[in-house]
Amino acid sequence: MTTALALSASLLWGLADFGGGVLAQRMRALTVVVVSQFLAVLALGVVVLASGAWRETGGLLWYAVAAGVVGPVAMLAFYRALAAGPMGIVSPLATMGVVVPFAVGLIAYGERPALWQYAGIAVAVGGVVLAGGPQRGGGRVGRETLGLTLVAAVGFGAVFALIAEASTTVSGLYLALFVQRVANLAVGGGVLWVQAHRGGEPALGLGEEGIRALRPALPALAFVGLADVAANGVYALAARQGPVTVASVLASLYPVVTALAAFGVLRERLRPVQAAGASLAVAGSLLLAVG
């Protein structure tokens, strides 16, 4: 069950990243993040009220708040690193944040993966790196870009670890996800407002033409926000059922999903190294699933 849930989280994250990337070609990336999270908050609010999850209490929600604050910071660092490039190096490097929840599993929970699972981890992570399409002789990664990528990686890994600790029940998970999204919206919206205020730009950095373009994009934005929320929830369930060391690695395979989605939908050419990476990621997943 852990394997199925973690792979489902990876699928959802990969599709959300693909959708967000496509939308970011039409509007500011931060706008995509804020609007999609706002729509996710509305949907989660209905779920929390209807399920009675709002009655859940406890200090565990602070983990959700922390995840909600860290998430936008990591995402902003990631987007800035991608803009500086080269993307083929930055994108797979950012997934190395899986080290954070993996270490939590080893240290906090005393998990000890079997030998073949360690092999599966190495193969799967290597596959993710190759799926990013690294190019020989490509541009060098500057220190600032490398620093931003490191911040993004650690931030993504921290969100993995924090959201897994944010609840112990299903109804509590609904509330935790809602709190996380509210914190996401507060931080992302605050940054967007400050940027617009300093630059004298319109709300959400869209302008009149941008707002007209936003309306038909609302279904896609809703999908991005809800897929991201669902991925967090499914991963939290996977990590609860454990082991975290396996769940975190399997859930980090989402760049492979994004690359395959770009190949299938946008007809982007999948380079041989990317195809090999996707195959390795699948092989690594099979090794992990054996345990």
UniProtKB/TrEMBL annotation:
It comes from the Bacteria. Residues 4-131, 148-288 form the EamA domain. The chain crosses the membrane at residues 31-54, 60-82, 89-109, 115-133, 145-167, 173-196, 217-238, 244-266. Pfam families: EamA. Keywords: Membrane, Transmembrane, Transmembrane helix. The keyword Membrane applies. One of its GO terms (cellular component) is membrane. Belongs to the EamA transporter family. PANTHER family: ACYL-MALONYL CONDENSING ENZYME-RELATED (PTHR22911), SOLUTE CARRIER FAMILY 35 MEMBER G2-RELATED (PTHR22911:SF137). This is EamA domain-containing protein. It comes from Streptomyces smaragdinus.
